[in-house]
Amino acid sequence: MDIRALTDSYAVSPQIMPEDLAAIKAAGFVTVIDNRPDGEIPAALHTPAMQAAAEALGLKFVAIPLVPGGITAADVAAQRAAMDASKGPVFAYCASGNRCSVVWALAHAGRMPTDELIGLPARFGYQLEGLRSHLEALATKG
User: Fold this and answer.
1) Which of 22, 26, 29, 83 is nearest to 56 (CA)?
2) Which pLDDT tens digit goes with each residue over 50-77?
3) CA dist 111 → 44, 69, 83, 108, 131 (Å)
4) Are the C-beta atoms of 31 and 82 separated by less than 8 Å?
5) Where are the domains of the chain?
6) How confident is the model at residue 6 (pLDDT cuts 50, 70, 90)?
7) Which candidate, 99, 98, 107, places its Cα nearest to that of 138?
8) Are 120 and 95 in contact, with CB atoms under 8 Å apart?
9) What's the chain's average pLDDT?
10) What is the pLDDT of residue 125?
11) How far apart, in Å, are the Cα atoms of 58 and each of 30, 83, 118?
């Protein structure tokens, strides 16, 4: 497992295993967001199995499956709501952590400077520069 903290309250990771959840909790995370559609992964990692494992440890679990290249406004709103509702740090995972970074940036447009929304994920190799104009447009909408 590779925890990549974008901020003190939000980290992303490539796909995790159920046995990783104890370390996620020990690292201080209270909410886990699964951004990976079940169709991409083996049944043992599908939402119901991961949710049961997370909740057994007292973690809040939210599934917001993001289709590669098809993140919608509803997806962004759901991710924002899950992050805002969390009572502590949020850990999100997908195949590589990229989709989790993209949806985080989109959800924070207008809340943080665009340069940070692009620069923080870039430290981990996530290239969000192509979203700059979209992030800036969202920021001006308030």
Assistant:
1) 22
2) 999 999 999 999 999 999 889 999 999 9
3) 37, 23, 13, 5, 16
4) yes
5) 4-106
6) very high
7) 107
8) no
9) 95
10) 94
11) 8, 17, 32
Q: Read off the pLDDT of residues 90-122 as tens digits, 9 standing for 90 and up.
A: 999 999 999 999 999 999 999 999 999 999 999
Q: Is 91 left (phi over 0), alpha (psi -120 to 50) or beta?
A: beta
Regarding pTM above 0.85, the answer is yes
Question: Minimal CA–CA distance to 113: which of 75, 139, 134?
Answer: 139
> 111 near 10, Cβ under 8 Å?
no
Distance from C-alpha of 46 to C-alpha of 37, rounded to nearest angstrom: 8
10-35 exposure pattern, b = at least 16 Cβ within 10 A, e = fewer: bbbbebbeeebbeebbeeebebbbbb
- Please state which of the four CATH numbers 3.40.30.10, 3.20.20.300, 3.90.190.10, 3.40.109.10 is assigned to the domain occupying 4-106: 3.90.190.10
